[in-house]
User: Fold these one by one.
Assistant:
Number 1:
Amino acid sequence: MKIIVGLSGGVDSSVAAYLLKKQGYDVEALYMQNWHDITGTLHGECEWEEERVVAEMVAKQIGIPFHFVDLSGEYMKQVADYMFAEYAAGRTPNPDILCNSKIKFDAFLKYAISLGGDFVATGHYCKKSILNISAATNEKTDFTFRLEQYASHKDLIYRIFAGDDKNKDQSYFLCQLSQEQLAKAVFPLGELTKPEVRKIAKEADLPSAEKKDSQGICFVGKVDLPVFLQQKLKPKEGKVIEIFKEDFPAIDQNRIAALNAEHAANDAAKATKSSADNSAENNTESVGNITTDELIKLSTPVKYKESDGKVIGTHIGVQYYTIGQRHGLNIGGHPGSIFIIATDIESNTIYVGEGSDHPGLYRKGLMIKNSDVHWIRRDLTMKEGESEEYLVRIRYRQPLQKATLYQRAEGLFIIFEKPQRSITSGQFAAWYEPAELEMLGSGVI
C-alpha cells in the first residue's frame, strides 16, 4: 500500500514523510500550489516557489519520489470564493478549515489516488483511531499506526482526537472531515510535541529542520486583510459607534424585551394548532430544564442601533473587520483599548467598546443552523430534544470550554458554562467528548 504525503516544505510534513519512510511504508511526496495572486500578501511573490524547492530537497534527502500539482482553480472555487462571499455578508470565515475538507482531503486526495496512493498523510498534530462496532473489543485508544487497520470497512468507525501537544493540537482544523475522508487519512505526528518534531528533523538533517511555521491564510500566507479583500470587495466608509459599559444593561434589556415580543407572537401563532401538536412542541421546548425561548435569548447577539452610543469615527467598510478586533480602526482618545463588539453589514456600521472586560464582547451561547451541523461521529448525532455535555472550541488554540449542546427543531444550541469572548458568525464551533478528547462534530456559527 502506498502513502502520499502532502509535503509543503515545512518541518511538520517533512517529519511525517520521514517517519513513514523509516517505518518501511511505500511513501511518495506531493506538493500542491493553490494560490498565485500576491495582492495584499506580506511575503515575497516567490514564496511558493521557495517552498517547493525546500519540499523537493526534503524528498530527495528522505529518498522518496516527488510530485507537483496545481490545484489553484479548485482552491479559488471551493475556498477563496467562499471566503470573499462570507466577508461580503458580514461574517468571518475560517478558510483553513475549508481548505482541509475541500482541498487536502478532497481534490488533493483524488489526485493522490490517481498516482496510485491508498492513503494521504499530513503533518497535523492530531490522532486517529478506529472503532470496530462488530467486534467484542475495539481499538478505540490504540493510536499505534498500523496501515492494515485503516482500510475502509462497513463495520469501522473512524475517530479523530486532539494531539498530545496541547500547544499545537490542530484537530480543530479538521472538524469538517467526513468518515470517508478520515478512512484515507494518516496523521503520524499525533503523539509527538513540536520540540520533538524539530529534534527529529535536525537529527535526520532535513532541510526544513529550522524553518519557521507558516502563518496566515492556508496556502495564501500572512496578509493585510483589507488590502487582500479589496481584490473583490470595494471600500465603503461607515460610522464607528462607541457603546459605553454603563449603558449596556439597558441596551441588553431592550434586546430581551424585543425577543420576548417576537416569541410571544410566535406562541400566539402556535396556539392555533391542535392541542396534540402543542403538547408535543411544549415537551420538546422544556427538555433539559431550559426552554427553546430561553436558548434563543442566551444565544442571540445584541442588536445595536446608532442611538445606543456615540459616533467616534469612521471606517473603510464593515467587511474588513471582525468581532474582538482591536487594531486597524485608528481611533485614539481612550485610556484603554477599543474592541469591536458588533458589526452591522446592512447599515455598514461598526460598534466598539472600551476594555477587554466590556460586556458586549461576551456571550453565553450560540446557535448553529441544522443545515450547518456536521457530525464526524454520525452514530452519535443528537436527536431533537436531546442535550449533551461536551467540551467546545470556537477558534484555534482556544482552550476547550465546558458547554451543553441542545438539539431543537430551530437548530443546535451551545450554551457555555462561562460566557465566551468574541463569538463570531461565520466561524466554526467544534465539540469534543470530555474523557478522551475525541472530536465529534462541528458547525458554522
Number 2:
Amino acid sequence: MKALAITHAPSLSAAGFAATAISYGPGRMGFGLFVPEFRAVFSLDATSVGLISSLGFAGFFAALLLAQVQLNRRGPLLPVLTGLGSATLGLGLVTVAPNVPVLAAGVFFAASSAGFAWTPFNDAVHRKIRDVDRPTALSEISTGTSVGIAAAGCAALAMVLTGLSWRDCWAFFLLASAGAFLMNWAALRRVERAQATGRDSGWRELRQAAMWPLMAIAFVFGCVSAVYISFAADHLTKAGGVPGLPTAATPALVFICFGTAGLAGLLTGRLRAAIGMSRLLRLTMMAGAASVALLGLLPGGWPALAGSAGLQGVHVMVTSAILAFWSERLFPDMPTRAFTAALLACAAGNILGPTLGGIVHDTLGPRAMFLCTALLPAALSLGLSDRHIREDPAASATRDGPVPTAP
C-alpha cells in the first residue's frame, strides 16, 4: 500500500488538477466569460442572462448531493467521471447551440461538473497519498481552479486577437474536457471506495447554533460571486473596456485577472495563522464587497477591471479555503458532510443571486445591481462578531471523510 501511495501521487495530482481546471474554468465560468457573444447571437437581455446562469448553478447544487452519494457507494471514480462527462456534454452543446434552450442545457451540464469534482479528490488523496505528500498534492489539485479560469480567459483573448469564433473556443474546451476524462479514468480506476466506519448520523448533527454563521457567510459568498461571474465581464465591455486594447478583449482580461489573483488562495493557511480567522474572514468579505462596488462606482478602465477582478479572485479563493477549514474545525468528526452543507448554502446563493441581479439590472440599472450586491458581504462582515466566528468543535459524530481543500 505504501508503494502504491508514493507512486500514485503524481498521476493523481495531475488528474485532479485537470478535473478542477475544466470544471471550475470553462465549465463553471465559461458562460459569464462569453456573455457578450451570447447576447449578440441569441438576443439575451439581463434577465435571461441571470436565469441561464442560475440554471447552471442549480446544476452545481444538484451535483454536490449526487457526488456525495456516488462517492459513498462507488468511490471517487464514478463522481469524477460523471462530472467530466457532464462537462464534455455541456461544452459540446454550447459549441453547437442553435438556440437559447440548447445553450441553457449546455450551461447546465457544464456547470454541474464543478459539483462532482470537489469532494472525491480529497477522499482519494487522503487514502492514497502518504501524509508528507498530501499538502503538496492538494495544493496542486486546488490550483487547477485558478489556472483553469485564467486559461479560459487566455482562450477568449486569443479569439479576439486572431479572429476565431467563440464556437472555436468552446470546441477547444470540449477537447480538453475529453482529455481530462481519459486522464482521470486512468488515475482513479484503482482507487476503491472507502470503508464505512461507525453509524451514519445524517445531517441532523449539523443543526447547531455554531453552524449558522458559516452557512450565512457561504450563502452571501455564493450570491456575490455568482453575480460577478454572470455580469461583470459584460458590464465592463459595455463601459468601453480598457485603453489600448480592443473592447472585445475585456471579458478575457477580467477572467485572466480573476484567475491569476485567485492564486492568493494558496496563502490562506499562512494568513490565518498570522492574523487569525476572524480578521481574515472580514477582510476577504470586504474584498468581495469592494470588488462589485467598483463596478458600480467606476465607469470602466484599468482600475475598475484589474481592481474588481483581482479583488474578486482573492475573495473567491480565500473564502472557499476558509469555508473548508472552518467546517472541519467546527465538526472534526464529520468534516466532509459539514463542508458539503456549506457548499450547498453557497450553491443556493449562486442560484438566487443572478436571477435577482438580472431583474434589478433590467429594472434599476447595473449600478444599482452592483451596489446592492456589495451591501451583502459588507453588512455581514460588520454584523458578525468574534463570538459568531468560533472554531471550537461543535459536534461529535462519526467521521465521514477528510476535509476537502477548496478550489
Number 3:
Amino acid sequence: MVYSGYEMIWLFFLYSFLGWIFETAAAAARQKRFVNRGLVNAPLCVIYGFSAVAVTVFCQELDGFWLFAGSLIITTLIEWTAGHWIERFYHERWWDYSNIKGNLDGYICLPMSLLWAVLCVIMNEWGNPLLMSAFHWIPSMPGKIIIWILSGVLAADIAATLILLSRRSRRMEQWRDVDSWLTGISSNLERRIYGWVDRRIQRAYPNAKHKAAEADDQIRTAVFAYGCSFYKILWLLVIGSLLGDVTETLFCRATMGVWMSRSSVVWGPFSLVWGIAMAAATLLLYKYKDRSDRFLFIAGTCLGGAYEYICSVLTELVFGKVFWDYSRIPFNLGGRINLLYCFFWGIAAVIWIKGLYPVLSSWIEKIPMRVGKILSWILIVFFCCNIAVSCMALVRSNQRVQGIPAEHTWQKVMDEKYDDQRLKEIYPNAIQVEE
C-alpha cells in the first residue's frame, strides 16, 4: 500500500511516541525511576519513527521472509549508523551491546536486530492499517493542522537539542568533566540549560561513555581533507561518480557491444549511484579498514544490496521510472537486485577499502588547503545545480506521460531542452512505470 505524505508523517509521530514509551518503560524497569530516553526533549524517540517510515516505504512490496529480511537489514543499518553518528559528532556512546554475543562494535547485535525485524513485520501487517484507520477518523483539515504543528515543534526541538549537545560535546572535550565545563559557561541561563540537558542525557544513558576525538587537530588544520572528513567524502563522491560511469559504460560495451550512457545526471558522465555508494561505504566501513577481506565482502554484499534496492524504490516513487531491471537474472528480488550483483558490491567493497581508497585519499590530501576548499565549493554548486536540473527534467518527463501541459516557465524550458528523445539518450534503460 502506498501512503500519502501526511500519512507517513502521522506514522512517524505515532511510532516515535510508541518507541519512546517502550524505551522509557524498559529504562524505568532497569533504573527503578522515570527517565526520558529520547534524543529530543519531547516524548519521542525519533529513531523509531524514522525506522518505521523507512521500512514502510522500502519494504512495501515485500512479504513473508523477504519482509523480515528487509526489516532486519534496514533497522540494523539505522541503529549502526545512529550509534556511530553520535560517537563521531558528540564523542559519546549511548548504548553498548558488547556483552551480548553476535555484536558489532557494541552498537548492533543479532538478538536486538531480530527483535526489531519481528516488530517491523507486526507493524507492516497489523500496526500500519490500524493506525491509518485511526488517522482517517480525524477530519482532513484539523488532521493536517495537527501534523504541521507537531512538525514545527519537533523541528525546533531537534535544532535546539543538537546545538546544545554539540556545544556540550565541545566543552566536555575541552574541560573533560561535567563540573569543569559547566563552570566555563558565563550565562546563568545558559548554564542551567546545559546542566538540564546534561542531567537528562546522563539519566537516560547512565552508561554513556565520553570518547576523546581521535584526530590530531594540528594535522587536521594543516592537511586538506584529512581523515574521513567532509571534504574527503565530497571528493570521493565526485570521483566515485566519474569512475562508476566509466566502469558501467565499458561494461555495457564489453557485454552488449554498444556504447550506452550510464549517467545519473544531465550534465557530465557522473553516475551518482556509484558516487554515493563509495562515499557511504567510506563513512560506514572506514573504521573497519583493517578488518579481514571476508568481513568487508559480507558487509559490502549486504550494504550494497540494500542500497541498490532502496535506490530503485526511491527513484520509482519520485520520478515514476525504473532505471534498471534484473527480472531476467536468476535469484533476483522484484527485479531491483540480484544475488550476483550483490556479490559484485561485496567485491567492490574489498577493492575500494583495501586498494583504491588509500591511494585516492593520499592524492586528495596533497591538494593545497586553499585550492582544495575553493574547488570543493565549486563542485558543490555544480552538482547541486546538476541534480536540480536532472530532477526537474525527470519530473517533467513523468508529467508529459500523464498529459500535464507546460504552464510554468520551468516546464517549458524542460520540454525544450530535455524532451523525451534527449532523455532517452541520457537514460536509455529508464522505463516508465504505469499508474
